[in-house]
């Protein structure tokens, strides 16, 4: 797979396809993790958002980088091939978690919470009919804004059950070791280190919600006082600041931001 050429030269539409975008984002993150490690900088605790959990497994020394890329490539293909055409995701801004959960419960399974990204920032996922039906109810409940996400399917929902089965078959063949650093997982916002449990959680992630808010709160409970986002852009940096307004948060997405962050932390 000519991933490097695709990342540098495009075409952009091909790079943004799920089966290519996921390995590209992971490659970007792993390159930064490797450079940080070469400068003797490594995390005490690890967490990843959705696909970012694979970068987390590399940082936790449970998966080799090339194996992580193979796993994510298989995951991207499974999600692309199995995503129902008439489905999608909507970001719900400005509503409490329980209000969104109640609206989803009233949809009788047509729509579910897919991402607990931050207080007042929830993503729902489901069938097209379900999303159309729930949107006015969310607005009536007081949602400040509904944003349709540019994705190809209802990720992190039961509609991805077939994708989870396809991915599970490939994931089972990827070598996975006991985690050497504590990693908090999206599925239940708890630390797991046993490879059997981790395999199950990574498959279940495709059909269950990303509990990012709860995961960051768990990291805080475990003693984290500085949070560093590694990877393209600054999305998670913003989310962590919303979850923990007083937290020290840095983002590393290139060499310049890495040098700045390491200088700040090391003085």
Task: Give a short synopsis of this structure.
This protein is α/β, with parallel strands linked by helices.
Global structural class:
alpha/beta
Secondary-structure element string: HHHEHHEHEEHEHEHHEHEH
What distance separates the N and C termini?
41 Å
Q: Supply Rg.
A: 18 Å
Percentage of residues in strands: 5-15%
CATH level-four homologous superfamily name of the largest domain: Malonyl-Coenzyme A Acyl Carrier Protein, domain 2
The tally of beta strands, per DSSP, is 8
CATH topology of the largest domain: Malonyl-Coenzyme A Acyl Carrier Protein, domain 2
What strand order characterises the main sheet?
Answer: 3-4-2-5
Q: What proportion of the residues is helical, as a percent range? A: 40-55%
Oligomer: single chain
Largest sheet: 4 strands, antiparallel
CATH top level assignment of the largest domain: Alpha Beta
Q: How many domains comprise the coordinates?
A: 2
Would you tell me the overall average pLDDT?
Answer: 94
Q: Compute the number of helices.
A: 12
Runs in which pLDDT lies below 50 for 5 or more consecutive residues are: none
Gross morphology: globular
Label the CATH architecture of the largest domain.
3-Layer(aba) Sandwich
